[in-house]
Amino acid sequence: MFPIQAPFPMNVSPLRFADADTPAPRDIHPLGPGDLVPWLESRDAGTRAWVSASSFQGREGQSLVLPGRDGAPEGALWGIGAPADRARTRFSLGGLRAALPGGTWRLAGEMAPEARDEAALGWLLAGYRFDRYATATPPAAMLMAPEGVDAPRLEAIAAGEALTRDLINTPARDMGPADLAAAAEALAARFGADLRVTAGADLAAGFPLIATVGAAAAPGREPRLIELTWGARGPAITLVGKGVCFDTGGLNLKPGASMGLMKKDMGGAATVLGLARMIMETAAPVRLRVLIPAVENAVSGPAFRPGDILPSRKGPTVEVNNTDAEGRLVLADALALAAEDPPDLLVSMATLTGAARVAVGPDLAPFYTDDDAFADTLMAAGAAVRDPLWRMPFWAPYEQLIEPGIADLDNAPTGGFAGSITAALFLRRFAAGAPRYAHFDIYGWQPKDQPGRPKGGVGQGARALLEAIGGLA
């Protein structure tokens, strides 16, 4: 057991709404191109002249601060674009937050409930700053929770997303397996969950793939399996997150350009911990279990080698044809453990393959499941909370690609085709026994600043899963 630490302090004030009794909030008026003229007709001559002299036309992402008679800001216009444009951008109110002066603001006018929820969450997410290593000034503008939104739920979602981002953004020097375990332990302590960490001889005996992948790590960065459990009623949900805290590629060493972002290779672990926080903070009626195989794929004498054949917890042997395909190995042992006590829903999340990024880019989170009804639920949930997903196939004819003959399974089929699919098929072998299984091949990184999503670590799929799990409970 590792000591409880608090290495990821969050400045929660920008991730919360303003107090409901804050006096004299200023109004934010959401306007599309067709709304501007009718809105101006009800305004005084000075406001009409100010807006007419500006370039504001209600286009998506535009903003304009409105001065009062004394010159101080009195309100703001927020361009929401035409309906056809709104599918192109998420959380545009988050982009407005940085443009507004300090003080308290509120949304004015009518909005559809789903648009209102997205706007409010986008505002909260735009308050995130990663300030562990450099001073980062939080935004001064605050928002009153719009009428009708579930403010505590949105704040819990924002806090979970902030945890995910903090974990991914932390450099590997300060985010090794022990640090990841300490973060999980701090989370468990906060919400009264139980935590167990398996390491050393017990790990080698019970989880040989996890132990082997992490065997080359330096002292203090040894592999371990982190297990968090919480809740006593409702459906059983098990979340398995890939916790490769840094991936050199092992003896199949990555080139420098490919290694630069490998601090994010524990993005699956970060995302399931962020989702776990959302679940626990919203008191969702589920029995939650989180499993994180935490390792560093390093290079030293004990490193596993191309051509090695490794045993697994479940029994099948695995031929290693590329030590850089290590994520599926550590997940395999954790999934096998999860399937021994089958939950109602088993989910794995991992920054697993470049093939997934080539297929769908950085925004979409591809997922795999054999359960058509659950797939439909996930897609609907993702659309509802603007957490975009895309279903990929467990394509059975490709099973032969992961069967090398010399061992039961191949961790890196030759040829390069269907890399995300073959990885998912590999994992499904170890999840067998769970009545409902879904695997997410996420990216976990925002390549450039977007509203509510600064460049850096980002959660994918967690909000959709939270929404979908609500239907199971």
Derived from helix and strand composition plus strand pairing, the structural class reads alpha/beta
Number of DSSP strand runs: 19
Number of helices: 15
Mean pLDDT: 93
Could you walk me through the main structural features you see in this protein, from its secondary elements to its overall organization?
- The chain is an alpha/beta fold.
- It contains 15 helices and 19 strands.
- It has helices spanning 36-41, 45-52, 92-97, 113-125, 151-169, 177-191, 200-206, 208-213, 256-259, 267-281, 327-340, 354-360, 372-384, 419-431, 462-472; strands at residues 26-31, 63-67, 73-79, 103-107, 141-143, 194-199, 224-230, 236-241, 243-247, 287-297, 309-310, 318-319, 345-350, 365-369, 389-392, 409-410, 437-441, 445-446, 456-457.
- The strands form four sheets. Strands 6, 7, 8, 9, 10, 13, 14, 15 and 17 form a nine-stranded mixed β-sheet that branches. Strands 2-3-1-4-5 form a five-stranded mixed β-sheet. Strands 11-12-16 form a three-stranded mixed β-sheet.
- The longest helix has 19 residues, at 151-169.
- The protein is elongated and about 80 Å long.
- Mean pLDDT is 93; it is low at 1-7.
